[in-house]
């Protein structure tokens, strides 16, 4: 039978019998003559609409990431029982009737109901971002209790209540990460919307103290801190949630380290608080409740975090002494010293004692790693990481980079203090340091002491940077821990964002260090370029361009005290090379 070009409008029974209906309503007489009751009519017909010029451009395009980077979240459900991580990565499968996102779908007219297909596409935007974030930025849960990066998230995340605080904060970060990696303005807009919702929910929750100290709340704050690194807005913000994070950890007290999840939350919180302390010259929030200091005598990992807090406190003391001398000099007084000689010597002596403690930690940590973590690389002393054939797991490599970065900060702070004090002394006396008159005060004796230590500090700075850069391939999972051979591209892309979030600020230190060699700076910029363009961590580009020759880094980074010190030391190094 040839289709006549139109649909039949007769009753259902006449259409089944393929006879002409008289279309009498409510029941046709043709069915009565046939001896059967009329089954009625239906008004739901399928018509072929001709698209006019007015609706040709009304097209909505769904952005879909590359299939080789991220598995599609809309495939069939596996028959095996999924783990917590798999449920979070593939939670789109739990929604009924989900369809695969289409490359192009025509939007409906305003009078029509929204299509289930469009609702499934909107749902897939969230699930694509969540899948990508968990796959790349959440480290696998370690079996030996070693803290990772958000490894607790798959177990805490409740896909059944997507409107919770933790779920909203996770979606905020996931959408921004997806925007940086794949593009698509919708990811960014939804991230900002969810960020506002998360802030509002957090303000309501922390009003009740019992709810505020829950792991889910602390994890939500850490996720919002992660958002600042991914979006690149961290350095310009005055607080970065530091005060709230400090308050919750301090309120929780030593109970925070009672579980592996709590210990990982504390580890990540201390990293965030110490970055804030370093950037803003405020050591108030560096060690909440002195938890790291108290547990440091039992756990070398906690002691490492406590040593980082001590380093920042000593750096701030040196800066306060230096600013005091500078203020004294600006009032045209003759002598440099404003504090007693004993107080200045005490601070400098504490700095060198802290450096000795770093060396002692390297030795003790090796023993602790051998007895506690059976299948992990063993920490070595300064300068041995790059020279030995030792292979490290991801978590140990990240820890070594963090501990070396604290050591780098302390040594460069001592060097900067020394040369800035020499510069102020020369403004008073005009001659070079060896000809300074000791009548200028006891501070000259301190400078003479530091002048003897400066070559050793300079040598240790080079070794420290070499160790940090040597650990980067292990931290990113590019090298197999057992064989030492490079991983394939597909296997090393997983979870590299988790390690990058932990070490990005440490690599920024190397890239801006005045005592780093040209090769070291170039390697650091290459790592930061991968963090920025390959992984989507915009905080890695806060130094400016992607090469040390770009003029933007100096202009952008001089906002911080560290950057101003490094700019001053570059002039010192340049003048010293010219004099040679």
From TrEMBL:
**Domain (Zn(2)-C6 fungal-type) ranges:** 10-39
Alphabetic keyword roster: Nucleus
- Its domain of life reads Eukaryota
Q: Which GO terms describe its molecular function?
A: DNA-binding transcription factor activity, RNA polymerase II-specific; zinc ion binding
Question: Where are the stretches annotated Disordered?
Answer: 72-115
In its UniProt entry, what is this protein called?
Answer: Zn(2)-C6 fungal-type domain-containing protein
């Amino acid at each position: 039978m040839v289709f006549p070009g139109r649909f039949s409008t007769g009753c259902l029974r006449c259409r089944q019998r393929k006879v002409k209906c008289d279309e009498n309503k409510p029941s046709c007489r043709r069915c009565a003559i046939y001896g059967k009751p009329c089954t009625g009519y239906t008004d739901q017909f399928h018509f072929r609409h001709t698209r006019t010029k007015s609706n040709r451009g009304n097209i909505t395009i769904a952005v879909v990431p590359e299939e080789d980077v991220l598995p599609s979240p809309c495939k069939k459900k596996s028959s095996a029982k999924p783990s917590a991580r798999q449920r979070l990565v593939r939670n789109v499968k739990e929604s009924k009737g989900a369809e695969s996102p289409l490359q192009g779908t025509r939007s409906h007219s305003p009078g029509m109901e929204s299509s289930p297909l469009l609702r499934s596409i909107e749902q897939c935007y969230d699930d694509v971002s969540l899948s990508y974030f968990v796959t790349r930025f959440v480290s696998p849960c370690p079996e030996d209790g070693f803290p990772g990066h958000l490894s607790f998230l798959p177990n805490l995340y409740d896909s059944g209540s997507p409107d919770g605080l933790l779920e909203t904060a996770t979606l905020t970060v996931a959408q921004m990460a997806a925007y940086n990696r794949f593009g698509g303005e919708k990811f960014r807009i939804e991230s900002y919307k969810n960020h506002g919702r998360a802030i509002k929910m957090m303000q309501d929750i922390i009003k009740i103290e019992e709810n505020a100290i829950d792991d889910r709340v602390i994890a939500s704050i850490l996720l919002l801190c992660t958002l600042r690194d991914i979006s690149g807005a961290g350095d310009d913000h005055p607080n970065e949630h530091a005060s709230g994070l400090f308050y919750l950890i301090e309120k929780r007290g030593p109970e925070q380290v009672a579980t592996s999840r709590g210990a990982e939350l504390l580890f990540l919180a201390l990293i965030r608080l110490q970055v804030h302390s370093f950037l803003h010259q405020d050591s108030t929030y560096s060690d909440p409740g002195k938890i790291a200091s108290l547990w440091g005598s039992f756990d070398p990992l906690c002691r490492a975090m406590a040593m980082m807090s001590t380093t920042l406190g000593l750096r701030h003391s040196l800066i306060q002494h230096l600013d005091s001398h500078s203020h004294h000099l600006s009032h045209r007084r003759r002598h440099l010293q404003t504090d007693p000689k004993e107080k200045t010597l005490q601070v400098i002596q504490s700095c060198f004692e802290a450096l000795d403690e770093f060396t002692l930690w390297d030795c003790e940590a090796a023993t602790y790693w051998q007895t506690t973590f059976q299948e992990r690389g063993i920490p070595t002393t300064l300068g041995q990481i790059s020279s030995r054939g030792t292979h490290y797991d991801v978590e140990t490599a990240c820890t070594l980079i963090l501990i070396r970065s604290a050591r780098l900060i302390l040594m460069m702070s001592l060097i900067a203090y020394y040369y800035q004090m020499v510069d102020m002394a020369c403004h008073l006396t005009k001659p070079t340091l060896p000809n300074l008159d000791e009548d200028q005060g006891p501070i000259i004796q301190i400078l003479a002491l530091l002048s003897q230590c400066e070559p050793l500090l300079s040598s240790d700075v080079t070794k420290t940077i070499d160790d940090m850069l040597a650990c980067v391939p292990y931290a990113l999972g590019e090298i197999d821990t057992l064989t030492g051979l490079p991983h394939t591209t597909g296997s090393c892309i997983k979870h590299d964002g988790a390690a990058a979030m932990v070490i990005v600020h440490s690599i920024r230190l190397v890239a801006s260090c005045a005592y780093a060699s040209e090769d070291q700076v170039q390697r650091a910029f290459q790592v930061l370029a991968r963090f920025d363009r390959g992984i989507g961590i915009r905080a890695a580009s806060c130094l400016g361009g992607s090469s040390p020759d770009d003029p933007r880094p100096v202009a952008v980074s001089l906002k911080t005290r560290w950057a101003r010190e490094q700019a001053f030391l570059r002039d010192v190094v340049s003048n010293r090379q010219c004099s040679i």
